[in-house]
Design a protein that fits this description.
Number of helices: 15
Radius of gyration: 20 Å
Largest sheet: none
Helix content: over 70%
Strand content: under 5%
Shape: globular
Number of strands: 0
Structural class: mainly alpha
Oligomer: single chain
């Protein structure tokens, strides 16, 4: 008979093998912490501005403010990830996000917070996140052997999607134990602090290969190198076109969870944050499980079939959420969305990382994030 220890060893060797590398483990834990803070903030900020303004539109403004810096910052962040030590760029981004979280928590605790404060801090948060992502993703490939990259990327994506579960779930724990919304923002401070500590423990240093020189023209040529590689590589370009359509049509729904909880699920103002957190937990838990399962799929043919199936499911599952009359059905609908969308994004990112040459990896991932 197979013992539990043998089963555990088989699971680790197939699904969690990249976590055996200490440097990758540090990056993995840092990303889980920081991304959990991000998704906790998305839910908490939306509920906060809804409480301050009473306007559902403000939940969209704040989420937009947190996301739009990627359009401007991501290509430049990719250049920085290739020009400078990726670990140093990553540490700077974490430091900025930690400072932003401290200021936000202090304003909330002192009851001096206004809607424009949340909007401005969301822009800062989004800018630092946009700088963080290409550096972390480019560094990732240097922390495991090349043969483990697919597994490492899938586990990394598991932190991205699983954090949608962890962050909102921790908010629920705070609400259950402390009973006050303000502590949700101090939770984000703690998560960013832990993430920064893990980043500073990483010893591996890596850079890309860029054109030497100073001045705006040199920077533009270096950034353009990532775009040129993407647009002249047929497989990468086809993946990016599909991913852009997917993200534009099925994602960026999180800001509506507090409004959905209040207007469609009939929750009182005092339970809006909890209702939105439940919906995000459903999404994140399913996305986490899907990413972990995909980490163990080694056949390219199986990955391709899964990519197609998950793409179709990504378009269908939001319809179920729109038709859900109560919280349990809405929870199951968001779980379906997490399964489909989380798996789709995990597979697309894995394919990009596998193809990308290390010399230009930061810039390629920067413009990939820009397109998303």
């Amino acid at each position: 008979m197979t013992s539990l220890a043998q089963v555990g060893q088989r699971i680790r060797s197939r699904f969690l093998v990249s976590l055996e590398y200490p440097e990758y483990q540090k990056l993995w834990m840092a990303t889980l912490a920081s991304q959990s803070a991000v998704w906790a903030l998305i839910v908490a900020r939306a509920a906060l501005v809804l409480e301050i303004t009473g306007s559902p539109a403000w939940t969209g403004y704040v989420t937009f403010a947190a996301m739009i810096p990627s359009v401007v910052v991501s290509p430049l962040a990719g250049y920085l990830a290739d020009r400078f030590d990726r670990r140093a760029v990553l540490a700077c981004a974490y430091t900025i996000n930690l400072a932003h979280a401290v200021v936000l928590a202090a304003l909330v605790a002192s009851h001096t917070i206004e809607a424009w404060h949340v909007l401005l801090l969301a822009i800062i948060n989004g800018s630092a996140r946009a700088a963080q992502m290409p550096s972390a993703q480019a560094l990732l490939a240097n922390l495991v052997p090349r043969g483990r990259i697919l597994n490492a990327v899938a586990l990394y994506q598991a932190t991205q999607h699983g954090s949608r579960f962890v962050g909102p779930f921790l908010i629920l724990v705070v609400l259950w134990t402390l009973g006050h919304d303000d502590w949700a923002f101090f939770l984000c401070v703690a998560l960013y602090s832990w993430g920064l500590i893990q980043v500073l423990r990483i010893l591996t240093r890596s850079t890309g290969v860029v054109e030497e020189g100073a001045g705006l023209r040199v920077i533009i040529r270096n950034v353009a190198a990532g775009l040129q590689f993407m647009y002249h590589h047929p497989l990468i370009l086809s993946i990016v076109v599909v991913v852009v359509a997917h993200c534009g049509m099925t994602m960026s729904f999180e800001s509506l969870f507090p409004v959905l909880s209040r207007d469609e699920l009939g929750m009182e103002d005092s339970s809006i944050l909890g209702g939105a957190s439940y919906l995000m937990v459903g999404y994140g838990a399913a996305a986490l499980v899907t990413s972990l399962v995909l980490a163990g799929i080694q056949s390219e043919r199986a990955r391709g079939k899964a990519f197609l199936v998950l793409a179709v499911m990504s378009g269908l599952t939001p319809i179920a959420l729109a038709l859900s009359p109560n919280l349990p059905l809405a929870f199951l609908s968001t779980a379906g969305m997490g399964l489909a969308q989380g798996g789709f994004m995990t597979l697309s990112h894995s394919m990009i990382q596998t193809i990308a040459p290390d010399a230009i990896r930061g810039r390629l991932l920067g413009v990939y994030t820009w397109h998303i």
